[in-house]
Every structure is written in structure tokens, then in C-alpha cells.
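Lab notebook, page 48
Experiment: co-folding of the full assembly
Goal: obtain a model of how the components sit together before planning crosslinking
Operator: M.T.
Materials (sequences as entered):
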Amino acid sequence: MIADSSETSNRAAARLQAEQADRSVRLIPVGGGKGGVGKSFVVANLAASLARAGSRVVAVDGDLEGANLHTCLGVPKPRISLADFVAQREEDLQKLILETPIANLQLIAATDGNLATPQPNHSRRIRFLRSLRNLDADFVFIDLGAGTHAAVMDYFMIGEDGVVVIAPEPTSVENAYSFIRAAFYRRLRLAMVSHDVRKIVTTAMDQRNERGIRTPLDLLREIQSLDSAEGARFVETMRAFRPRLIINGVRTAEEIKLGFSIRSVCRKYFGIDAEYLGYVNNDDAARESVRVRRPLVDLHPQSDAAIYLARIARKLLAGNSATREDSA
Amino acid sequence: MKSLSEQNHYEILETHPEASDQEIERAYRLSLTTYADESLAGYSVFAEGDAAALRERIEAAYRVLSDEQSRSEYDASVGVESNSEVAGPAVALADSSPLPEVAERTPLPINFAELDDGTGGDFDGARLRRYRMRCGLEVEDIAAVTKINTTYLLFIEEERFPDLPAPVYVRGFVGAYASCLGLDSRRVATSYMRRFDARREERRKGRFFESH
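Observation: model returned without errors.
Model output:
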């Protein structure tokens, strides 16, 4: 367990979030809580899809304990990786960049992590996230590991566009909710200023808390009764938090609707406004692409799953131009 | 942000005051799926009795909004007008805790069109399947309406042309399938049959060369 509630690191993280707004590189963290739902497959294909469309893309494997993004992208086992940055053998993230077989698409792998301490400590994470933002690219995807470890949540918070990949099965859906909740509470705790309020948020993160706080709405009322300025910040934070859902591996029309249902539950239960970005169907072509270690959008661009993936990529691209117009 | 008891009928169904009857119907059906007891999206979140309570609210909302007269009465009573923002709740509030003054973001309507594949070109089997799935329909649903055997429907989607019956039947099947999805049946059938005929022609030529 990593202690992360110190005042300085909180401020550093908040500053980091502010810096994000000014940069033109778009960071897209992709998580989901559960392993094996196809995060790396989705990241590899969205990255390849945008690269094929002419964007400059860097795909970063953030999964130091189960690296396999390089395999999805057809890069042979790399000698340098994020592990070198974590172990402070390499300070310049730029030097860890590898070329992939796809034009415009580069990779930072995560192979050969130190199994004893795979995750970087908090200050190292801040440095990592800042370096990501300085990469020379239009899009930077971060493929997150499983679970809701503090490091994973920090990476997920880096962009406003965090993507949650979900498989249409109970275990994955359950973990996705834990993941979204964890991300939300962590973001919230960073946004709150007062020590007392932050303590309440920490209490609320425990689902069986004694104050009977079950949903963010309960929490909001609790905070508002204490401090109205914090209440306003709470509402702001909640509004800015917009996880985006991808359902991977759908077989039936019923499973396509799952994305809408999860969006509804997020709204009704957590007050969180998620966006249903799209779905990818269960496709033999997808399995084949993993086997031959080539992104599906590159191997079989006309397959169903590739068309769905390209469609999601187009949505990300459209979101990108909209943000830029806003800031112009 | 409003608690459930503070939400009006439109918000409960996650639709909007300008929604068509069809949209209300779709929103209602989706809500029922979402808040069914064993719902995949909900079971890990629902506390005991939650889903039942929600379904009751959903049914109440649907009863009012599915009937033209009761809907317009309701709209008038809560001050909803066309093109206006959703007004505050007028339903009896079970929950009497003070309501914070929070500007509410209007919920986004449920919209399958936002998942549109946007690809143009021929109406091939794969595209028909994508449309079908986007509409939230299973092959069995199409079969129930069109009375076309599910096997043929799947052959159409998979473009297993040699396994399909004579062209005149296929044209009819594809047209019926398309109109079932709300597509222009003639356009789809013409486009599909172009592929069908071309493939047949290829096969015929293939045989011709083999025999000489």
C-alpha cells in the first residue's frame, strides 16, 4: 500500500492536472479493473487505427506486472522498457520509445519489470506522467494494468478521456464499477481542500462506512452541510469526470445494450455521467490477429471487429478536434 | 445531481421531453432490462429491494408518458414545454431532505444512432448484421416478423450464396429483412443482389473454364 495523502503530492497531482489542459498531446488512459477483458487488444487497435489515419501516436504499456502491448503490436521482446524508468536507470522517457511495424505508431514497452517493486513510487509516477505529456505525439494511449492500485488510478486520472474496457460478463462488470468508483473518489479527494472534508471522502471510499454514505449524492450532502465551497468543488469535479465505456467481445444485441445499462446505473447510483463510446464484437478475426501479433485494423481492416474499432477511433479523433476548437 | 425521488418521469426513463413515442418505448424497455433483478449491469450494485423500487418508478413513469393524453397533462403540470429544459420535479417527494441548488445537466437521451458505423458502400451481409445489432435485434426477432427461417437470415448475413435459394427468393428475403430494420428495402435489396449476382456469375464462369 502506498501512502499518497501527503499534502505535497496532492498538490503536485493537482498541478499536473492543470498543466494537462495546455498541452496539445492527448493522453488516453485505458483501464477496466479486470484482467483479460482485452485492454491491450483495444489499445493496440485504437492506436493503430489513429496512426493509419495520419495521427502521430505513442502507445505506452503501463502494465509493469503483465506487459503484453508489445506483442499485440508485433514488436519483438524489447530490451528497453518503462521498467528502466521506474528503476531510475533511464531518466528520459523519449529514449525508451520503440518503433512498431506501423507507420506513425511508436511504443513504450513495460517488459522486464522488477517483480519485487514493479510500481513506481508516487513522485516517480508524477515524473512519468509529466514526461508523457512532453512526448512528441498527437495521442498517447496508456494501457493500464488490472486492479485499482494507487498507481493505476493515478494514470487513469491523467486525462479527462479515461476509457474503461468491459467484457459482457458479471466479473468484468463488477470490477468496472469498483474501478470507476475508485477513480472518482481518488479524483475527488485530490480536488478537496479542507482536511476534514478529505477525511470524509476517505471514509466514503470504504463501502461499509459507518456514516451510511453509499453514493456520491450522500457524500455531497454530507460535505455541503460542512462547507459549501467544498460542495461546489465537489459538483465541479463530478461534472468533469466522464469515464468512457467500451464493451469488448459482444456476441448478441442484448450485450450491446449493456453499455447503455451501465451508463444508466452509473448515473442513477453514482451520479457519474459515463459515455458509451462503442462496442467491439466477438470475432474470430480478432483472435487470429492476436495470434499473428498484428493489430486487427491492420491485418483485416474489413472485418466486423475492425470496423467497430475504427469507428471508436474516429470518435476519439472527433473529440480531439472539438477540444482544440474550444481552446482556440 | 438529483436523487431518484427528485427526478421527473423523463429523467427516470433517461429520455427527454421531446422524445417520440418510439423513443419513450425504447427507453422504457432498456430501463426494464437494466433494472431487472438479475441484470448484468446492476446485480453487483443493487442493494436488496433497490431494483424493485426502481422498476416501480419506471413503470409509473411509463404509464404516464406512454399515453398521449396523460403525457400532455403531465407536461402541463410540471411546466414542460417543447424545446424547454426539463423543469423541476412536481412529483410527490418521498425524500424531504433539502435539495441543493445544483444546475442539472440534462441527461443525454439514449441513442443507438450515436453508435452508427458511418461506413457507406454496398449493403453486404456484414453491414446488415451490424445494423441489426445496432437496432438491438436478434436474428430470431427478424424471423418472427418476416417469417423467414433464421438459417436463411444467417446465410444472408454470412453471404453463403450457394446455400441460398433462387435469386427471386433471396431478393424478397433481403428486402423484408431491410424493411424490418427500418431501411429502404429496395435500395438494400438491389445493392445486395448486385453482390449475389456477381458471385454467381463468377461461379458460372469458373465452371465454364473448367469444362473446356
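Interpretation: The interface with chain A takes residues 1, 3-4, 14, 30-31, 33-34, 39-45, 47, 54, 97, 100, 102, 105, 107-108, 110, 114-119, 126, 129-130, 132-138 of chain B (CB under 8 Å).
Next step: discuss with group before ordering constructs.
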